[in-house]
Amino acid sequence: MTRLPLRRRLGRRARSGASAAVAAIVAGLLVAGLAGCSGSGSRAAEPHAEPKQSSSAAPTPRPGAASGIQDPDTSSYGDVPTAGVVPVKVEIPAIGVTSGLEDLAIGPQGELDPPKAWLSAGWYAKGVVPGAVGPAIIAGHIDSPTGPAVFLHLHELKPGDTVRVTLSSGAVETFTVSGSRSALKSQFPTSDVYGTTPTPTLRLITCGGVFNPAIGHYDENLIVSADLTSATKPTH
Q: What pTM, to 2 d.p., does this model score?
C-alpha cells in the first residue's frame, strides 16, 4: 500500500476545534486515501479506501463549509476529544490487531502517506480525531514484500465487531462495525468515506482486489465503517 489518494475534500466540523482542518475536506477538493498498497500479493486482495487529489498544492479551507451539518447533540457519546488530544492506539479484537498509530499526512503528490511500518496502522492527522463528530480515518497495509501486515484480516470484520481507539488523554473510544465495502481505486467513493456525518464515525482502510506484480500494487480498496457506541472518560 503506498499512499492514500485524495479526492474531494468534504469537510467536517468537530467540537474539538478542528473545524479548519475539516473545512479543507469540504472545500470541493480531492481527499486523500491510500493510493496503493505495495506488497507481495501473497493474499487474495482486500480492498482499501484512498482519496486522491489532482494537485500537490495544499488544500485551502473554506470557513463554514460544513456549517449546520456536524453540530448534533453528542451527549450520548461521552466526552468529545479536546484540542491537542490524538489517538495513540487501535485494537480490533476480532482479528487480533493491536497497534500504535502513526500520524499520516498528505505527500507531495497530493496523496495521504501510508504508515511507514508494515505492522503499524496510522490515522489521518489533519482529519477528525476518533470520538469527535465526523469520519475519523485509520489506514494500514494489507501485506508487505515479505509477509502479512497489520490489516491483513480487515476483510473478516463483520457488523457487531468492535474497534477500540485509545486517545492520548487516556480515554478509550469504542466503535461498532456497521459494514464494509470494496471499490476500485479509480472509483474511490470519496464523498461516502470523507463526507460529513452527524455522529462520530470511523473508517478503516486497506488495499485489496487484484494484485498487479508489474506495478506492485492492488487495484481496490476496502473500507470498513464503524459507529461510536461508548467512550470512557480521560484519565488525566
A: 0.73
Is 34 within 8 Å of 4 (Cβ atoms)? yes
176 residue type, one letter: T
Exposed e or buried b per residue across 153-192, where buried means at least 16 C-beta atoms within 10 angstroms of its C-beta: bbbebeeebbbbbbbebebbbbbebeebebbebeebbbee
d(CA 56, CA 35): 14
Q: Distance between terminal CA atoms of the chain?
A: 36
Look up residue 182 and give its three cell numbers: 470494496
How many Å apart are CA 211 and CA 165, to the nearest integer?
Answer: 30
90: amino acid identity, one letter: V
Rounded to whole angstroms, the Cα distance separating 19 from 67 reads 10
Q: Report the relative pairing of strands 134-139 and 30-34 from DSSP bridges.
A: unpaired
C-alpha cell at 157: 470484520
Question: Scanning the structure block, which residue is given the C-alpha cell 480487515?
Answer: 154
Give 81-135 pLDDT, tens digit per residue. 778 999 999 999 999 999 999 999 877 766 678 899 999 999 999 999 999 999 9
> 167-226: per-residue pLDDT in tens?
999 999 999 999 999 998 888 888 898 889 999 999 999 998 888 888 778 888 899 999
Round to whole Å and give the CA distance between 36 and 45. 12
Given the C-alpha cell 487484484, which residue does it identify? Answer: 210
Residue 24 host element (H or E): helix 19-26
